[in-house]
Amino acid sequence: MSAPAPSASTASLSYEQAGVNYDLIDPLKVAAQRAAAATAGHLAGHGFTEVPASRGESAYVVDVGPFYLASIVECLGSKALVADEMKALTGRSYYDGIAQDTIAMAVNDLITVGATPLVVQAYWAAGGSDWFGDAQRAQALVAGWKAACDRCGVAWGGGETPALAGIVESGRIDLAASCTGIINPKSRLSVGDQLGAGDAIVLLASSGIHANGLSLARKLTERLPQGYLTEVAPGLSYGEALLAPTVLYSPVTEALARAGVTVHYSANITGHGWRKLLRHPAELTYRIHTVPAVPPVLRFIQQHAGHDDREAYSTLNMGAGFALFVPREQAEQTVAIARAEGVEAVLAGQVEAGAKQLLIEPLGIRFASDDLQLR
Amino acid sequence: MSAPAPSASTASLSYEQAGVNYDLIDPLKVAAQRAAAATAGHLAGHGFTEVPASRGESAYVVDVGPFYLASIVECLGSKALVADEMKALTGRSYYDGIAQDTIAMAVNDLITVGATPLVVQAYWAAGGSDWFGDAQRAQALVAGWKAACDRCGVAWGGGETPALAGIVESGRIDLAASCTGIINPKSRLSVGDQLGAGDAIVLLASSGIHANGLSLARKLTERLPQGYLTEVAPGLSYGEALLAPTVLYSPVTEALARAGVTVHYSANITGHGWRKLLRHPAELTYRIHTVPAVPPVLRFIQQHAGHDDREAYSTLNMGAGFALFVPREQAEQTVAIARAEGVEAVLAGQVEAGAKQLLIEPLGIRFASDDLQLR
């Protein structure tokens, strides 16, 4: 990657400068999406059909008769690099949290369509056999993976632990998870056809940066005299704060289903920050009247990257890790159920008829339809 | 990786010298398998159960009531490195075949338990955004991925295309596929409880090395004066021959199911070569009376690596990519159905009562139970 180093520590640091060039990736993505869509007809040969609306969603859904089947594969991204740096600085292994992050990337996407996650598969591709020779780290990865499965009530089916010298860099690991679930009863399917004016927007709290925006966060250490050991709050280093594991939201969505709450739509707030609230293609206005508390590490990144609120909310989760769109009369119940599951939640706003836009009123921010290009 | 270079070109080249040290990976694998097995109880919370016998098999199976659900994630391994070298030498992109290889790794494992593959997800983790900027290569990857989905009758659900600079090496890509399928009717489940004395062993032909043994095959180029351009047969370079795409076997297993052939057990012959025929834990003798033709590239590797038949058959597929264990009276029909699907097949032997061992009689080779440690 040839991202130029910022010339001065006061310059604003963009996501592109941090090393991700979507102009190069997007043509492939579009070609792949078209080719993928053209394969849907194969399901008819088995007596099944896809749920076409799921094509643009976070997980792919197939109607297999008695219920829907949902599946996904998701990558952790570059967060493990922070764990590696912090291990060198502190001697601790953070791979228990990294394991949770990886599972969260898959599970939190899978549940957006209304699925109950059933099986997780592990994909741990190391830069060489010797990666697995660090017993402390390997055990942390295994223990954290199991704990996250326990928290989500999923079975860990198995997985792959290849040693990929020459593809994965020496001393590094490429972590991903695949997840399969079912939508049962079928009425739990939430791909947005029920979404409409009058729905309430409930935001579930994040624990920090989760696993998106790490390229930017890592790049930022070049501006910090103490790097990852710089304090973001008294006694809390930047590195420790970045490594707070991603919240697993499936216990909340499962509890909502048990309680009879109807989720009309949901969005996992990952890359693209709050613009993910505009995920559904419908022409609707999302009006936010209450924003959740911003975790110290995200405020710290915003300040040191020189981002205004608009740029920060367009890139980072800023305290909201998951959005639920529910009937207005079930909004308070939704908040209460989330809290009972140990996840802070806020009734943040409502869906209204009108142009497709997100209005974050307390901050005077407006994101319009063309601020998010996902499909 | 610290594999020593061979001191002379006549020395035998072992798999460990080629850079894979299972002694480092295996303790993690065992710990992960134990932790994974301990999560099975979570399925009861959803009203389901795992199929315990699938824990040691190539795909994980859950009983979801009307049918079984099978899922898997599989890595391509290092075969893409050969495509990269050959691109530099010939100007051609081989990523259409590489895509097929990647899907084959997942599909050919999934079908061993009797599953019909339904959905494939793509995992394409590049060393940087610029990987995707090579349009010829990117289009070959997309086209090959779709063609393999078409051949297997699976829907391409979506996937991930992360740019992982700092984790995946610059200019490289880490390719994997996840696959979800169902076993329907449930009588198609083949985890080995029907396997027994009297069953016939039908071997389906491979196209070459497939995607296992590539570390050894790549290492071998150091001994070849013309490297990948060395001819293994008139007009066929070593590199071209290595890149023959892995055969997709699901059209055969689906055709067998339609024809009413009962598959008692099956094995995808990947790493560990023919020792995979010993995969099932039962005490049974597998007697081979006919071996399939050996693809020129595998004979070439055997000769140049200085391997005797025993070592070659213990590492490479030697012409047999997939093994089907079927009732004796359906053996000829099995061979005919495979051929009708364009896959060469041979009635190779039978299962007998006796000590757990594989006897390859035409070659005078015996593999015993302790030659394969998978569980």
From TrEMBL, chains A, B:
Task: Cite a single GO BP annotation.
Answer: 'de novo' IMP biosynthetic process
- Report the Gene3D superfamilies cross-referenced here: PurM-like C-terminal domain, PurM-like, N-terminal domain
GO cellular component terms? cytosol
As its record notes, the protein acts as a catalyst of: 2-formamido-N(1)-(5-O-phospho-beta-D-ribosyl)acetamidine + ATP = 5-amino-1-(5-phospho-beta-D-ribosyl)imidazole + ADP + phosphate + H(+)
User: What EC number(s) does this enzyme carry?
Assistant: 6.3.3.1
Enzyme type, top EC level: ligase
Name of the protein this chain belongs to: Phosphoribosylformylglycinamidine cyclo-ligase
